[in-house]
Each structure stands twice: as structure tokens, then as C-alpha cells.
């Protein structure tokens, strides 16, 4: 009878259990990966990386307590493993413990000063804390050590974009698909990806990516494609399709499953700023590149015609699945004081998860809530067309109001998204926008107080809504 293998002399990384976990990861089956790594942990309880792998996956699957236990086990088994400390920082960030994440990353870098992943992770924490210059330095150090580190390259793009270096930033941002390329869209006749060059006579498909707000912000590039002699088809979500069909420069708007027009080439939508050479002086012109259906806008104007006061749209929450939604969404309780200000009529434009905040609240007579009648962004655009002002958190309606040319006041967290840049109260992307930033992290009270004061000045005639940006 052959001797059984001695676990003490087997490399755990090459064990069938560990390799099954890696295979499941490549197949993007995290549940199966957890099961395989758990079997590996049972066989090799003193192998730190297997506990860390389970911790990472458990955190991604939303099992925070299990993730913390696994990382604590991994560190107890091998406290000198830099990669484990670096990965632990990601779970600490998911738990909202950014200060502890920084300590974990400093521990990783004390063990391995040239650890590119730890430098990239440290940069990400600093970036989200608003320390853009320090974050940029970390990303550059990571890239000096690992030039093909796509995450560090993408994050460097974010840092440069936040600083306003659009041309260089959009170039680095092209690395976002370096590790996992965006799949080509399903077309009847396969078409190549467009990577720049002449557009005369080219039928170009722009594929939406990221969030709905990104689609709204960057569909403005359809006009540049048109001016260059091409035509643009926009592949977007069903919620945006009606709106995109009326965007300047868009020949066709389609959603997944729709019949496609003839396509010569395709591109991710957010690659257009890089491919078309955008810098701060060449952001495609102005506003009013989106338009509601005239009949829909007229119907909503009629419905709101009888209300008195300044008509103000209000949005307080974004998509909760977005990684930074906890920081960017003030929620209803924070903005509720605005509803009782004199001289205003508030129109609630909130849809989705944020509407649950209204449970148990009795709205004043000076509030109209059409939220349950909003089917898509075309409906929201039609309502906005009849408003004097929109006040919103950093979410898709902020972009929609700006693209429609409506006065819009945007409530921003302390470390705002890159597109709002740093230290600005205006936006080169949206001339009608005004930015209200948290003075310190988490302080929505000051933001709402500043907006309240400005609203009262407008109502009293001391301030005009025009030209605020």
C-alpha cells in the first residue's frame, strides 16, 4: 500500500484544495472559492494566506464578522506576512475603519517597504480621505516598483483628474480594464474597438460603463463625434434609453437586447475623453446637451403651475451599491430642515433606496412628491425642466440637472469624487452648478446650513440663481 502524503512536507499553495480555490476565483465563483479555501484551511491550519483568502472573499460577500475572524487568524499564525496585512486593510476599510486600515498598511510596508500592493492600497485610503497629493505619491511609488500595476495606474488617473490634470489623468484612467478587459459588445457583425483616429463616416458604438451619472456626463462627447464626421450610437441602461435618444449628437440609443444599427467600431464611453484629447480648456461645450420631451415637460409644468414660491427639486441619496455611497449620501434626515424654509416649494425627485427614508414622515403642504411616478431619467428630466433649482447629493440627478442647464446645487462629501476637483465651488463640466462641500468629513449639518442661508437670500431677492457658478 503506498504511503499517504505527509501534509507537513506538502506546499499548501500547490495542494488540490488551494488550487481549487484559485480555479474558482478565475471562474468568478467566490462561494465555491470560499468552500475550497476552507477545506485547505482545515488541512493546513498554520498556512496564513489561506485564512487571508477566506477573509477577503467573506468580506466581498458581505460576511464582515467572518472576514475579521479569518484575518485575525491569519495574522496570529504569521504576523510577519506583509501581503496579509495589506489585504486586511481592505476589510478594515469595508468596516469603515480607515485609521486602522492605514495602521495595517504601515505594518505591511514596515515588513516589505517595496510592496506595491500595499503602497497602492495606502494611496487609495489617503485618496478617499482627501489627501490627494500623498495618495498620488503612493501610486507613483507603486508604479515605479511594478509598472504593470493597473490598479495603481487607474488610481493615479483619479488623483490627477481630481487635481484638474484632465489630459494626463484620462490617459492613466485607461488602465481601468488592464487586468480585466471590458468584453466586446454583442453585435451581429463583430466590430473592432476604436482606439483613436479619423471618425469621418464611422458609425461608433459608445458602451456605457460605471454609473448612470457617468453616462449622463460623458454622452456630451457625441457632439464631438458628430463634428468629426462620425455617428454615435449609445448603448445604455433601459432607465436612460429614452433620455439618451434625445441627446445632442446621438444617432441611436439602445439597451442590451435591442436590435443594433450598423456599427463600424465600438469604445467604452469613458475612453472618449482620452481618445479625443480632453484637457481643462477643451471640455465639450457647455450645457443643454440633453432635452426632455416637450410634451412631458409641458405636462409637469402644468401640474406644478399652481404652487407658490421657488420650485426646488431635492435628491438626498444615491445607489447604495456604490462603494462610497455612505459618504456621499446625506439621507433625508440631514436635509429635512430645507422642507420648512419659507418661500419655497420642494419637489422630491428621489427614487430608489432613498425613498425608504420617507417612512413615518408627514410631508408639509409645501412639498410635492412625484417620486413614485418617475419611471426613468426622461421623466426626471421633464420635471426638472419646470423647476427653478435642483439641490442634490453627488449622484446621477446632479449630472442630469447640469446637462439640462438647470441651476443645480450639489452637496459633496469632504473628499469628493474626482470630477468635482479640489477647492472649487463651481464646475467646468457644468456651468450652472454650484458645489457645497463638507468642511470636515461627515459634516452635512454645515452643508445644509450653508444651503439654507443661500436659499433664504434668493427668496429675499438678495441673490440671483443665475450666474452662481
TrEMBL record:
<feature type="repeat" description="TPR">
    <location>
        <begin position="116"/>
        <end position="149"/>
    </location>
</feature>
<dbReference type="InterPro" id="IPR019734">
    <property type="entry name" value="TPR_rpt"/>
</dbReference>
<keyword id="KW-0802">TPR repeat</keyword>
<dbReference type="InterPro" id="IPR052943">
    <property type="entry name" value="TMTC_O-mannosyl-trnsfr"/>
</dbReference>
<dbReference type="Pfam" id="PF13424">
    <property type="entry name" value="TPR_12"/>
</dbReference>
<protein>
    <submittedName>
        <fullName>Uncharacterized protein</fullName>
    </submittedName>
</protein>
<feature type="repeat" description="TPR">
    <location>
        <begin position="48"/>
        <end position="81"/>
    </location>
</feature>
<dbReference type="InterPro" id="IPR011990">
    <property type="entry name" value="TPR-like_helical_dom_sf"/>
</dbReference>
<feature type="repeat" description="TPR">
    <location>
        <begin position="82"/>
        <end position="115"/>
    </location>
</feature>
Amino acid at each position: 500500500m503506498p504511503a499517504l502524503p505527509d501534509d507537513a512536507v506538502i506546499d499548501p499553495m500547490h495542494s488540490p484544495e488551494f488550487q481549487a480555490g484559485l480555479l474558482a476565483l478565475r471562474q468568478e465563483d467566490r462561494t465555491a472559492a470560499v468552500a475550497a479555501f476552507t477545506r485547505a484551511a482545515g488541512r493546513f491550519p498554520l498556512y496564513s494566506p489561506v485564512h487571508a483568502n477566506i477573509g477577503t472573499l467573506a468580506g466581498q460577500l458581505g460576511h464582515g464578522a467572518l472576514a475579521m475572524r479569518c484575518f485575525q487568524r491569519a495574522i496570529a499564525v504569521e504576523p510577519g506576512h506583509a501581503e496579509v496585512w495589506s489585504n486586511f486593510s481592505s476589510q478594515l476599510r469595508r468596516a469603515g475603519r480607515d485609521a486602522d486600515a492605514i495602521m495595517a498598511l504601515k505594518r505591511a510596508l514596515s515588513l516589505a517597504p517595496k510592496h506595491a500592493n500595499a503602497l497602492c492600497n495606502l494611496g487609495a485610503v489617503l485618496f478617499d480621505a482627501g489627501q490627494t497629493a500623498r495618495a498620488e505619491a503612493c501610486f507613483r511609488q507603486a508604479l515605479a516598483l511594478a509598472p504593470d500595476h493597473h490598479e495603481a495606474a487607474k488610481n493615479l488617473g483619479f488623483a490627477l483628474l481630481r487635481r484638474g490634470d484632465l489630459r494626463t489623468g484620462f490617459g492613466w484612467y485607461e488602465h481601468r480594464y488592464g487586468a480585466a478587459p471590458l468584453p466586446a459588445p454583442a453585435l451581429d457583425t463583430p466590430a473592432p474597438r476604436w482606439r483613436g483616429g479619423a471618425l469621418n463616416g464611422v458609425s461608433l458604438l459608445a458602451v456605457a460603463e460605471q454609473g448612470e451619472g457617468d453616462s449622463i456626463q460623458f454622452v456630451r462627447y457625441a457632439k464631438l463625434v458628430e463634428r468629426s464626421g462620425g455617428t454615435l450610437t449609445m448603448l445604455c441602461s433601459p432607465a436612460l434609453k429614452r433620455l439618451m435618444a434625445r441627446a445632442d449628437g446621438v444617432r441611436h440609443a439602445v439597451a442590451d437586447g435591442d436590435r443594433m444599427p450598423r456599427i463600424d467600431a465600438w469604445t467604452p464611453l469613458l475612453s472618449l475623453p482620452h481618445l479625443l484629447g480632453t484637457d481643462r480648456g477643451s471640455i465639450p461645450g457647455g450645457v443643454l446637451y440633453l432635452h426632455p420631451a416637450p410634451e412631458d415637460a409641458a405636462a409637469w409644468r402644468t401640474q406644478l403651475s399652481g404652487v407658490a414660491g421657488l420650485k426646488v427639486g431635492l435628491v438626498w441619496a444615491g445607489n447604495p451599491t456604490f462603494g462610497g455611497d455612505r459618504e456621499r449620501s446625506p439621507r433625508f434626515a440631514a436635509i429635512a430642515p430645507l422642507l420648512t424654509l419659507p418661500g419655497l416649494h420642494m419637489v422630491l425627485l428621489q427614487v430608489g433606496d432613498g425613498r425608504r427614508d420617507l417612512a413615518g414622515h408627514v410631508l408639509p403642504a409645501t412639498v410635492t412628491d412625484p417620486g413614485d411616478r418617475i419611471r426613468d431619467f426622461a421623466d426626471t428630466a421633464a420635471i426638472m425642466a419646470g423647476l427653478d433649482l435642483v439641490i442634490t447629493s453627488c449622484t446621477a440627478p446632479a449630472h442630469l440637472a447640469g446637462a439640462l442647464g438647470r441651476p443645480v446645487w450639489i452637496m459633496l462629501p469632504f473628499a469628493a469624487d474626482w470630477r468635482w476637483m479640489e477647492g472649487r465651488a463651481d464646475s467646468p463640466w457644468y456651468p450652472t452648478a454650484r458645489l457645497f462641500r463638507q468642511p470636515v468629513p461627515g459634516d452635512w449639518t454645515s452643508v445644509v446650513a450653508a444651503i439654507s442661508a443661500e436659499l433664504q437670500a434668493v427668496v429675499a431677492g438678495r441673490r440671483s440663481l443665475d450666474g452662481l457658478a
